[in-house]
Amino acid sequence: MRITAALLAAAASAAVAAAPAAARPDDTGGVVRFAAGGASCTATPNNPHRSSGRPDGRILFKTRVTCTSTYPSVTVRIRGSLQRGPLVGPKVVVTTSDQTQIVKNGKTATFYTPLEGGTQVREAGMYTGFIKGQITAPSPGNLDGGHSKTVKVA
């Protein structure tokens, strides 16, 4: 049986797309949108970086969440996962976070991964921040996920 280059390329592309924690070569990160009832939120995972506010050199990423709503505020849950690994290929979860905050209509809240008391990461490498976001109150909504760019942290 003869396998053509086009078939191999299609199979490789499908394997990359199917990998659960592997970013694709066109990785640009970006905004995640989720909604419930009369509320809509956007979450933007920033690129992983060393904390400028801590002298110990820990690596983290922030997720900025802004909501517009017919309610005065909504409750938002963000689950974050900082993963080490190449742009394409397997990644390893090195720390996680799970936070809930009240976001006032038209305002922005910042979620951190990892949390202050969570597992801290200091080793240089290639990192990507992954998130899942959801409005939990006053009306529960859809769960949506996204990621930052994969960046080298020295």
Quick recap:
Helix content is 9%, strand content 49%. The protein contains 1 helix and 10 strands.
User: Roughly how much helix do the residues carry, as a percent range?
Assistant: under 10%
Order of helices and strands: HEEEEEEEEEE
DSSP strand count = 10
- The CA-CA distance between the termini, in Å, is 47 Å
The whole-number mean of residue pLDDT values reads 85
Computed over alpha carbons, the radius of gyration is 18 Å
Report the biggest beta sheet as strand number plus sense, adding barrel if it closes.
Answer: 5 strands, antiparallel
- Shape estimate: elongated
Explain what the structure shows.
With 154 residues, the protein is mainly beta. Helix content is 9%, strand content 49%. Strands 1, 2, 3, 4 and 7 form a five-stranded antiparallel sheet that branches. The N and C termini lie far apart (47 Å). Mean pLDDT is 85; it is low at 1-26.
Spell out the blueprint of helices and strands:
Layout: H1 5-18, E1 32-36, E2 39-45, E3 49-50, E4 59-69, E5 73-84, E6 92-104, E7 108-113, E8 125-137, E9 144-147, E10 151-153
Antiparallel strand pairs: 1-2, 2-4, 3-4, 4-7, 5-6, 5-8, 8-9, 8-10
Descriptive tags:
10 strands, 154 residues, disordered N terminus, single chain, mainly beta
